[in-house]
Amino acid sequence: MSLLEVTGLQKIYKGRRGGASVEALKNVNFTVEKGEYVAIMGESGSGKTTLLNILAALDKATAGTVMLDGMNLSTIKDSAIAMFRRDNLGYVFQEFNLLDTFTIEDNIYLPLVLAGKRHQDMSARLAQIAPALGITDLLKKYPYEVSGGQKQRAAVARALITSPKIILADEPTGALDSKSSDELLALFKQVNGMGQTVLMVTHSVKAASHASRVMFIKDGVIFHQIYRGDATDQQMYQKISDTLNLLAQGGEQ
Amino acid sequence: MKIGFYPKMAVSGMRKNGRLYLPYIVACILMVAVFYIMHLLGFSKMLENFQGSGTAREMLKLGTYIMAIFGTLFLFYTQSTLIKGRLKEFGLYNVLGMNRRNLGKIIFFESLISGFISLAGGLLIGIGLSKLAELGFRKMVGLDSSYKFVISGESVLCTVIVYGLIFFLIFLNAVRQVRFARTINLINSDKAGEKPPKANWFVGILGLLLLGSGYVLALKIKQPLSALAVFFAAVILVIIGTYLVLIAGSVLLCRILQKNKSYYYKTNHFVSVSSMAYRMKRNGAGLASICILLTMILVMISSTSALYVNREETLNNQYPRHINLSAGNEGYSDSYGETTGKVMNGINKEVEDYGAKVTNSFSYITCSITGYFEDGKLRLDLDPIKMLDDDPLKNMASIDYDKVTQVFFFDVDDYNRLTGNNESLSSGEILAGVVGKLQFGNELTIGDETFKVAKKIDHRQGNFKHTMKNLVLSTLIVVVDDLGEVATRYNRYVEGSGEKMLEWEWYYAFDTDLDDDKQVILCSQLKEYVRDELYQQQFHAVRCESRVGERQDFVETFGGLFFLGILLSVIFLVSCVLIIYYKQISEGFEDQSRFGIMQKVGMTRENIKKSINSQMLTVFLIPIIFACMHLAAVLPIIHKLLQLFGHNNMPLLLICAGICVAVCGIFYAVIYKLTSNAYYRIVS
């Protein structure tokens, strides 16, 4: 059984007061295996973010099912959703979403504190992941004192610390300069190398070229996908560019 | 651009931010109203007919100044939260092509409009409330009440000037904030990573020092009226100290809590403690405002309710019999006693002529002199009261008010009659008693004379207790074998003004078998009689009062003060509620996005509720605790003030204070709970 199974997913935004409704997702089907690093690409308005929000249980699908490790997201009660998210998902946002009231360390602890973990356990877990993320020196600082790249690494640490089943990343390089982007992408690769499943939504070819599989979404459906196979990042980049060109020209598969 | 453009922008801006602006304007209106009422009561002639109005008015004047200072601090605090929410909007206007001058104009019109609404509304409410109070007051003490609430032009003018100035300062502050910010900072102002405040030891310690010195100063004051300037200084110190301590101290507290890992990293405490630490600077100001208001409420209600509840006892202390007469004279002469002896016979005859009987009577003659008591010796060579009056701040250090002492001389015959004892003394021997904390041994020196203390006595025996009332100073009671002989020796002590220091006093009080109305009639007849007799002989302070006649006056005075206390407290309480509401709402908007992020990270609704509760409990108690501390520091002064009204019931005062604290605490808790629900609705 796959870790994540998405079947017949549909999402319709109802227009207000009888306005036209928009079909953001038509019929999305895909699966993600454990330990995979998947990128979902698409232009603005293609439905990427809607998809990710549904996967993260931040939004509800109109039709279709999302199964994470055998659990059906749509059957989870509203009151249990936050807890489900905390225990199973790690989310990395484009805008970092670190809280400026906390130090970097406390920001990373937040999901564990919410889960009621003891401080010793938390610091032990942080000690495990902090060196790999290169944030050991930043822990006592506040978000406003560190750079965007450092913030995003802290956000990754926050996503990782709960040992989630899957990490969902929404344009994680979107607010970063190219150097920080490279570092972050290397980091995702490293995390993925440790066995962590990652699902990233992006429209950056470079970001996608690090993934082991890239899915293209257009007009609410998965349009095409590319497997890395033995290709290097460079070759992958080329493949993705070609596909995008094809898509932009409106070509068929 | 048309002329009406900026006002239009201002109005629409205020309307769009109604959720923030409305409470702010209501707060302003209330502040103005409170100031007006305080000023009206303190400075106009309205309370002039009040017995004891001097004290009440002095306190109200003081309250007016305090309200002006408090109002400034408080409005600056609320406005700073308000403008923070608007900066983004101004940033957008800036991007769209408005320069700082244009923005300044918008702010100007907003300030003008809100200032005008506040002043007009505040004055209207102030006038309305004072009219309403008049009606309530008349109901309480009867229609023939002589106190009228009027509209005072002077008070209106003063309110407009003071609050106009405050609003102008606030306007300048807002302009400063917009002027010196970069456009990009304006736009991002709401999400700019604001620095969490560092624990500021210096400010915290400074606050503690101010608070402490305010307390010490307040506790040192033994005579509130003569040292009103000192009291005022103490109040200001305490207010500023409270602000500093709460602003810096609360950050410190949060830092300490954060250091305690097993406390901090709990689901309930984690979010609340960190967000408190984050905004404690402003939070502290809000808490301090609440604390000051609570203190004022506690002080007013506990003192006036103690007066009102105790009115019968005060009346009975003040007027121990149905009819009470007294007169005084300067120095000592045997002829004084002879005259009053004749007058007493005359009085008894008048009463008999009226067809009534004198019963349960007592009378005494006493001589008193005031000096400075040191090392078992009463010095008559310095004039401490005058020194304190002239320069209270300078002389407070050198003069201990507890040692300013009044000595009352009694003849042993009077003493035996009043107490029912049978003491006899030889020349140079005395019976000595004391009211206050004075210490003396077997010898007592008063001026140049030294007496041998034969026995120490308790002044609360039998009718002798009636000789000691309205004592504000420490007091020695000296019973001598021959009052005339001893007192004559003190005739030579003369004050700076040339008057003799020794005061002679006669007192006569008795019951009759008449009903209330007739007592009043008899009393007025007697009054005419004794005045005729005694004023001719150079006696002064000639009094003839019936207890029944004074009762109405007591009810009016104390009821009036109580009513005033309630009126002002209600206004303060409403302001307090408003601050708490305002605090919760503005914090709610601030925290909205923060809780949004936390929900994405996995915070449940349950978590949110719990963390709000935890925050509430931590913050909730601080103002109450501080208010109680302030109350405790000010109670001795209240006690002294109440003594001026003839109230000498410390236990009752304490009980009243306790009840006030309890009632206020419960009310405050309910308000806090209700407003925290508003906060919850915003963030979730």
State the separation between the terminal residues of chain B, measured CA to CA. 42 Å
Cα distance spanning the termini of chain A: 28 Å
Describe the global form of chain B: elongated
Strand order of the largest sheet of chain B: 2-3-6-7-5-8-4
From the alpha carbons, calculate the radius of gyration of chain A and give it in angstroms: 18 Å
Mean pLDDT of chain A: 86
Most strands sheet of chain B: 7 strands, mixed, barrel
Structural class from helices and strands of chain B? alpha+beta
What is the helix tally of chain B? 20
Taking pLDDT < 50 over at least 5 consecutive residues as the criterion, the unreliable ranges of chain A are none
Explain what the structure shows.
The complex is a heterodimer of chains A (253) and B (684). Helix content of chain A is 37%, strand content 24%. Chain A contains eight helices and ten strands. Chain A has helices at 48-55, 78-88, 104-114, 119-133, 148-160, 178-193, 205-208, 233-248, and strands at 4-13, 22-32, 37-41, 63-68, 71-72, 89-92, 166-170, 198-202, 213-218, 221-227. The mean pLDDT of chain A is 86. In chain B, helix 2 (18-43) packs antiparallel against helix 5 and helix 3 packs parallel to helix 5 (153-179). By secondary structure, chain B is an alpha+beta fold. The longest helix of chain B has 55 residues, at 547-601. Helix content of chain B is 67%, strand content 11%. In chain B, strand 6 and strand 7 form a beta hairpin. The mean pLDDT of chain B is 81. Chain B folds into three domains: 1-192, no CATH class; 201-320 and 549-684, no CATH class; 323-513, no CATH class. The chains are: A alpha/beta (253), B alpha+beta (684). The interface between A and B is medium-sized, with 32 and 27 residues.
Spell out the key features of this protein.
heterodimer; A: 253 residues; alpha/beta; 4-stranded antiparallel β-sheet; 37% helix; B: 684 residues; alpha+beta; 7-stranded mixed beta barrel; 20 helices
Task: Offer a quick outline of the entry.
The complex is a heterodimer of chains A (253) and B (684). Chain A has 8 helices and 10 strands. With 253 residues, chain A is of the alpha/beta class.
